[in-house]
Amino acid sequence: MLAWLVKEVASPYGDVATLHWAVPDTDDNADVDALNSTALQVKLESAEDQLGAVLWNSNTAALNHLHTNIFVSSAVHADHHGARTDASSTAAPLAGKNIVELGAGVGCLGIALAMAGARVAITDLKELLPLMEHNARLNDRRVQSRSGGAGRCVALQWKWGPTVSTGVHKQVQKACGGAREPAPQQRLPITDADAVDRVVSAMAASLLKPSASLAGCVEALQPTAAATSAGAATTQCRFHYVILCDALYGNPKDWPALLYTLTELMATNPNECQVINFCEQRVSDVEGAFLALLDAENGKTYVQMDQRLERGGDALWANVVESAMRCCRSASSTSSAVEQHALREEAANALLSYVLVQRRGAYRWTYSTEVLQDAQSDLNMVIRATQIRWTRVVSNDGEASPATSRHPRRPREHDDDDDDNVDGSAPDGTPAKRHRAGGRQHRC
């Protein structure tokens, strides 16, 4: 029988008391009865039987890797005067860092990072919010004492993707046919490309603003900064790390929404923000298909919004308008419901594709994947960590250029001409050994 249990999970920053959903050992019966009170069961009813309520097998291994290979290496850096600082020796090595854990589940990993001094948002679906909040409160004193008051951990609901409408057909019909969408027999053909352009332009501008999820995260982590407008507060709040653990084992249909959220977070700090994704290899190369989405993004050309009518225009924007026109024409034709649905999806996807490129600007996705050599999961599974970041694309004349050429290159770990990595070293500053696996370069 499954029940709520508490386990102390080891981390480089101290143990984390973690309530999770599991099968108790026979020796734990007394503790189980005490924990599983009626009040707690009612409070956490929405989280029962949720996959995210199960304690991830690789928390300790992932935290050790982050501490040794990511945070300590990043903390040793040259300041503006050339001096070197080792922030890893301080009591709160992550003080001043803003971190988001997506798909946090029980929140164990994010809570540990708060103990190291970071401001951390542990996020997941609304069903898991009460569980994350419980674990954050359970460890609040530890966070404050171990971080010297610098750390903070908040639990938030965060559904990946935009939080405003992407229904192009509805917005165009409202603009051209009145406040309410007309009945099918009353719809008029929409042939005014200028009107459609105005509507989708307004939708793109809305999507380029901080989403409600991002604005809520900023407000929770930095309430003083968020007291101003949402856009100004988001500009002031730069995120340094985004952590995912086994988040790619869900439905691949959710990955475009995840890509949207990652893009939005990285855009707050494009030169420094890193995404660290951990995957137990229950399925070989489980992250490969998601990384292919990043390759596809690098194949799209960025054109500044104010230049999309110049220099031959912007193919992505032209596709947005054309898709919207096709979608709206089908509404007043004899197209089947299936055909209309497909065209509506096409119009929404074209708009989101354009917004992603505009938000990323003159940057491209780069990534490197490595096997954790010194650790496995509690179930002795291989763990792979993928480090994802943006690299600014610079043309020969020193100006920012489109995110790709006509024939885009597959992203390498780091290019020899990258601004922030001229010596060809790994992201953590150590020499990288490379071998090819499945067409991608991996670091061992």
Automatic annotation (TrEMBL):
Q: At the top level of its lineage, which domain of life is listed?
A: Eukaryota
GO annotation (BP), single: methylation
Determine if Transferase is one of this entry's keywords: yes
PANTHER family hit by this protein? HEPATOCELLULAR CARCINOMA-ASSOCIATED ANTIGEN, S-ADENOSYL-L-METHIONINE-DEPENDENT METHYLTRANSFERASES SUPERFAMILY PROTEIN
Species, as recorded: Novymonas esmeraldas
UniProt keywords (A-Z) are: Methyltransferase, Transferase
Q: Which Pfam families match?
A: Methyltransf_16
| Segments of skewed composition (Basic residues) | 432-444
Give the span(s) annotated as Disordered: 394-444
One GO molecular function term? methyltransferase activity
Q: What is this protein called?
A: Methyltransferase
